[in-house]
Specification:
The complex is a heterodimer of chains A (401) and B (233). Chain A has twelve helices and twelve strands. Chain A has 401 residues and is of the alpha+beta class. The relative contact order of chain B is 0.19. The mean pLDDT of chain B is 89. The interface between A and B is medium-sized, with 27 and 28 residues.
Amino acid sequence: MRARDVLGYSARSLRGHRLRSALSLLGVAIGVASVILLTSLGEGAKVYVTGEFTSLGSNLLIVVPGRTETTGAAPMVSTAPNDLTLDDCEALLQRVPSIRKLAPLVFGTAPASAGERSRDVMVIGTTPEMLEVRKLRIGIGRYLPPGTRDAPICILGAKVQRELFDNRNPLGEWVHVGEARFRVVGVLAPRGTSIGLNMDESVHIPVHNAMRLFDRSSLFRILAEVHSSAEIETARRQTIAVLTERHNHEEDVTILTQDAILSTFGRILGILTAALAGIAAISLVVAGIGIMNVMLVSVSERTREIGLVKALGATRPQILLLFLIEAAVLSTAGGVLGLAFGLAVGKTFQNFVPDFPVAPPWWAVVAALAVSITVGLGFGMLPARRAAALDPIAALARRRA
Amino acid sequence: MAGPIIALAGISRTYEVGGRPVLALRNVDLEIAPGEHLSIMGPSGSGKSSLLNILGCLDRPTTGTYRLEGQETSQLSERELALVRRHKIGFIFQFFHLVPRLTAAENVELPMMFAGIEPQERKQSVVEALAAVDLSDRTEHRPDQLSGGERQRVAIARAIVMRPAILLADEPTGNLDSASGREVVERIEAMNRAGITLVVVTHDPAIGERAHRRIRLADGIVVSDVSQKDGTP
């Protein structure tokens, strides 16, 4: 039997009962579309988060006080971590050659007001290096001038500027933050949230002013930029060595690297995507059962036809093939339709949320199509075997189907 | 004369019905010469259909041997039997058994499709077969657009398209009015005159009497076997 004949025969019998074929095809289409859409969203989330972290600044080390690993038993003597200090910053800058630039970070929230208006803001106390280390962009004015550690000046986030000053130019104006007064020297360009810190809602002041404001002598974080990504591991080890030595030989800091964070998030989101694909795949199994049902009905309706073709000399494998291909044509058509639909919906979604990349990973496209063909062949097997095994005499003796 | 095209020896067929064996055919011996026109008659339950199914290789005898063109068939596999049906036997059924969604031409083409014959060659054979039953103007009609007589003629075309040696007709006029029935019978007999061996199973004496050789079955036994050399009166 020729391939074209097999396909033609199957296609004609599917067209013979259009509605039934269309409905079972729709089942597969919905399954495939949901696999495509859910993996698109999962993959989009992964790309989005990766982008967010990359926008943090490249080759970044983040020094966090305290060890985040859980140790086995609670220690007998509590070892409270030593504070991170500005002296630590100086030491790192001098003794770790692979660190190019470094910015301390003091963090807190405080009410900010200008004239009648006030709101709570995130206060970031830092040094001029922050601009480069965090890849911040200035909208108007300037960032902290070089060398600034202690001066009554501030830079506003875009949203803070809007809420305190509307459209007025805030440069040169005074803003009250907590108990202190700062003159505005610049406004950050709008940026939106990145890893939970919304820079638009922040106010940046020199590091000493922030320490006084919050009555604190320790740093929240130290951000360090390394010359190249190849040096990150060296820099991490040296940083720990220097700080351990300075903190009474106690390793009491945790270093987060961008790579580590990225790979952790990548892993989590990868698992999430796979889980979503798995859930969507369940709908493909349901669709497969639908196909099996339709094919079983088809076999019993066409009992006489099967008897006839057996009498005409069709062998058992030929009949098996005819019905298998019929099921596969059904499921593959559903798969292609679902793929097109899933991609179209993804594209539409993309138009509404341009920042969020919605594209299915290639493996999901391949897998969805492969699975839809397999579903047809797998669930078509039982009906096809039943058709092939029919006794021609009994099948022909059936008067009217 | 050449050897028989069909040679049955000691054929019995037993069915299990409700746990009890029922003998449908008892020790049937039958030889049919190439080109013969033979009718098998008898009341229902006499074993006509069982005999036809065995002749058509749709069924295997419980005991006995069946040689078709000298080939012993009782040892053939299911696949080999399908090939015998495909190449050597043409079937005509009481209920036509056309595939409703296919056109007349496509129905006739079916056996050649399963045989994997080139589309070009198929088209040619289909045209010839439909011309032989005078349906050249009906090739693109589907069965529901054809009369009963026309449907049976499509079925005849399908039965001969593979140029089989034997034509087996099971009550070919049983579902037709007398005019269409006569036309169908004449077509089939024309095939026989062209050389094909024709076996007609019927309980209609008017059809059965037309055959040159008439077999009568009762209770699975051949009770008479009459030959009439000079055809119908």
